[in-house]
Design goal:
78 residues, mainly alpha, Arc Repressor Mutant, subunit A, 3-stranded antiparallel beta sheet, 3 strands, globular
């Protein structure tokens, strides 16, 4: 089922990527995109790494992650 943040680019399907959130129509998981960002990749470099993605896909993955964090309980950072 696509996750709609205005673009329906993120989906979660138990038959694809074990149900992990991924970019619609691909097997590129949101977690993979976020790991690249954590590793210092900017959007142009991510697009070179995953040529099937668009800038809007990467931004949707970031919005999805931000939304997921807001929906969870606070975790102490100490």
């Amino acid at each position: 089922m696509p996750y709609d943040m205005g673009m329906k680019r993120i989906e979660s399907d138990p038959k694809i990527c074990h149900g992990e959130p991924h970019i619609h129509g691909t097997r590129i998981m949101v977690a993979n995109i976020l790991s690249l960002i954590e590793g210092g990749y900017d959007i142009p470099r991510i697009l070179r790494h995953y040529p099937d993605l668009t800038r809007a896909d990467v931004k949707a993955a970031i919005r999805y992650a931000a939304s997921a964090v807001r929906m969870t309980e606070e975790v102490p950072l100490t």
